[in-house]
Amino acid sequence: MTDFEDQLREALRPPDVPAGFKNRVLAKLPEAYPPAPRHPVMRRVAVWAAVVVVIAGSITGLQIERAQEQRVRGEKAREQVMLALRITGTKLNQAQSHVRQVGDDGSTNGERP
Fold first, then answer.
1. Coil, strand, or helix at residue 94?
2. Helix extents (H) in the chain
3. Burial class, 64, CB count within 10 angstroms (exposed 0-12 / middle 13-18 / buried 19+)
4. DSSP secondary-structure letter at 14?
5. Would the CA dihedral through 57, 61, 67, 70 be positive or negative?
6. pLDDT tens across the length of the chain (113 residues)
7. What CA–CA distance (Å, rounded) separates 45 from 36?
C-alpha cells in the first residue's frame, strides 16, 4: 500500500513552474480583465438625484410639521372661543335674570320702592 501512496503523491505533486511565469501572468491581467468604463456623467446625475430626493424629503417633512402646528393652534383657538362663548352665555343669563327680577318688582321707571 505504501507503493501506491507514493505513486499517488507523485502524480498529485504540482509541476515545477517555469522561471518568469508569475510575471508573465500578472502582465497579461490588465488585458484579460480591463477596468470597467467609468461614467462620470451618470455618477454626477446619481449624486444630484440623491441630493434632490433628500431636499424634497426635507421640505415635505417641514410642511407636514407646519401643518400639524397650525392644526394644534387652531384647536387651541377653538377651545378658547368655546370657553368665551360659555362665559358670555352665563353672563347673559345672569343679566337676563336680573332684568326679570327688576321687572317683577313692579317698578316701571327702575326705582325701588
1. helix
2. 2-12, 21-32, 40-104
3. exposed
4. P
5. negative
6. 688 898 888 888 888 888 888 888 888 887 777 777 778 888 889 999 999 999 999 999 999 999 999 999 999 999 999 999 999 999 999 999 999 998 887 655 555 54
7. 18
